Amino acid sequence: MPGQATGMELAGNQPLVEQASALGRFLTPQSIAIVGASADAGTIRGRLLDYLIQRDYAGAIYLVSPSQPEIRGRKTYPTLASIDAPIDLVLIATRADATLSIVEECARVGARFAICYSSGFAEAGEEGEAEQRRLGEVARNSGLRICGPNTAGFFNARDAIPATFARNIDGRRAPIASGRQGPGTVSIVAQSGGLVFAMSDRCLDEHGLGINFAISTGNEADLGTLDFVEHLVGDEGTKAILLLVEALKDVDRLPAIAQRALIAGKPIIVSKFGRTEAGSRAINSHAGRLTGSSAAYDAAFARHGLLATDDENEMADLAAAFSLFPLPSGNRVAIMTTSGGAGVWMADACEAAGLEVPILDDATQAALAKYVPSYGATHNPVDLTAQVTVNPLGGVTESPLVATLAALHDSDSVDAVILIANMSDGDVLAREQQGLSALAARLRKPVLLYSHAPASPKSLELAQQIGLSVFASTRRVARTLGAMVCYARSRAEMTADPAPAQPLAAQEIAALADGLVEYEAKALLARHGLPGGDEVLARSAAEAVIAAREIGAPVALKIQSAAIQHKTEVGGVALGLEGEDAVRGAYEKMMATVGEKRPDAAIDGILVQKMLKPGTEFALGIVRDPDFGPLMMVGLGGIFIEILKDVTVEPLPVSRDKAMAMLRRLKAWPILDGARGRAPLDVDALAGAMEQLSRLVEGSGDAVREIDLNPVFVYPRGEGIAIADALVVGRNEPHAAGDHA
């Protein structure tokens, strides 16, 4: 039949390449069946066939339509079972209510993969969610692997195989949208069908990047994002993987996959959606998916070397940088500019991004002086001035722009170079194309281009031909280099997690699972090397007086009850008490007040606690995330945590080194480190306590839901820490922790 496969060759006489992993045949199928096929290329069902024909798909195409004897000159089949040949991939372009029965038929005939395009599943309510679960059950019970539902499918640009209805790859559109330029260096996985192909266009439009694979996973009844990421990590042609996700399933696989990607030097660049209440609500309505804690995702991404991004421009910029340039060996940046003001602006952006713009060494400045006029600058930023690019200094035969750029590139005093020039008309790059191409062919560090006037299409095209790329703003340049430095550091610092913590005693695990009030929690913490203060639980006024006498004034009294988390709200805290009468009176008053306000609460007693000496307040805690398990949170207390939200989060395990890294990420780190004449705090003791807390929780299995240590007083260096209040919410408790002082 016209256009039908007669062998296993593509249009260019290149064999279909089956990938090493199981998903290789999904992305390079040797036979495709379309259920619900149509001749109308204006419909979703019709586009599936139309795009395969446009791309001269060389595999076998089987069209399933019980009502039409032929479609576009091709034979049709009434059912999948009537196809007397193996089927790699079935494209199901039918209504949601017909999808399950077709998937079941796919399993019966032994098809290997299916794509379910239709929406109307988990995003449509309980009935649709149940139907989606049944799709997953078919996959688990049969071995059929399913992509979707509610997906746009995929485009394999390398082998020109479209299994999608997305208009972005329609060959009748402009080349920039059709992907006709061929395969490239980037692969994209997104749960949103619209975004995966839009991101493909953006990478091509802004940086000339071709795409290897664009994959939409949809609702993920079976195949999920991490299945495809795992495959792409092993794909030789993919240099960078872009992820656009709302939530991940099977997140326990992330650490191993991410480590493989780091070892391979293949960055995973991710944007996580649903960070706001409105965003989460929108996701649940269109995909039936709960988004998960953004703080937990950010912490897990950072822990495992994924690069989190804020927007589509940043994703495209990073994809270009990692595709074109080697990694920087440090954070020192040389800025070369033909505009002094633009150079200053770029220097500000670089330092704001955590990059260093150092004064160049004498040897490098001497090499630059041959090309830079006396009214320019050689220190960094290097101001070549606009005039010299047009009228070189006397005696100079080579291009001053290329020679200066090469000298900076070859200097051991910098790790990356930024070239700033006016590229609004294409003349600069056209004039310097030969020299820049020679430099681009031998790059050993990143060289990023920035035009302080909007770059013309001609400049963008020339930069891509040279092997470089133009970035659209000072912030985007600096942000890109900062991410490259961060990724290089992640690769250099790859270490195995510490040895697993020893399991706690069975009675301690049982106690944690039931939850611990303050006096119980602090006693357990003390046994595990986490210090509090002197304290005694009193069950009568007389016991409180004796305890206060033994501990020494001043003391604090705190009500102790598993039913009371907010002690101050029920009159359950008294501070700074001195003398027997004060202690006795406070005890009796507290018991009466609490009894009146919470007559239902079982009271264990009142904790008599030595008033701790003032210190810098920290909040330290553990929360068990449903996706990533236990996470540690640390931040300065008081206004820092309540107003400035200055906290850092890290998945367990947290070693001492990880704890120190968490503390350094706080905005308030300079205060901890003794800024402006303040005494440095004992951050070593705090980091040690964080490590101990991590090991305690690791050793308790899943017994702990939350631990709240707030405040923790941190004293000047060498004086240690003290836990002033503590609460443990266990697995068996129905309630969650909150403010409990």
Task: Please explain how this structure is put together.
Keywords: ATP-binding, Nucleotide-binding, Tricarboxylic acid cycle. InterPro entries: ATP-grasp, ATP_grasp_subdomain_1, CoA-bd, Ligase_CoA_dom, NAD(P)-bd_dom_sf, Succ_CoA_lig_flav_dom, Succinyl-CoA_synth-like. GO terms for molecular function: acetate-CoA ligase (ADP-forming) activity; ATP binding; metal ion binding. In the N-terminal section; belongs to the acetate CoA ligase alpha subunit family. Pfam families: ATP-grasp_5 (PF13549), CoA_binding_2 (PF13380), Ligase_CoA_2 (PF19045), Succ_CoA_lig (PF13607). The structure is a single chain. This protein has 741 residues and is of the alpha/beta class. The chain has 4 domains: 24-321, Rossmann fold; 331-492, Rossmann fold, CATH 3.40.50.261; 534-610, 2-Layer Sandwich (Dna Ligase, domain 1); 616-730, ATP-grasp fold, B domain (D-amino Acid Aminotransferase, Chain A, domain 1), CATH 3.30.470. The protein is 38% helix and 19% strand. The strands form 5 sheets. It has a 7-stranded mixed beta sheet, with helices on both faces. A 7-stranded mixed beta sheet has the order 9-8-11-10-12-13-14, sandwiched between helices. Strands 24, 25, 26, 27, 28 and 29 form a 6-stranded antiparallel beta sheet that branches. A hairpin with a 2-residue loop joins strand 3 and strand 4 (74-77). Helix 12 crosses helix 19 (474-492). The longest helix is centred in the middle third of the chain and has 19 residues, at 474-492. The protein starts with 23 loop residues before the first helix and ends in an 11-residue tail after the last strand. The relative contact order is 0.06.
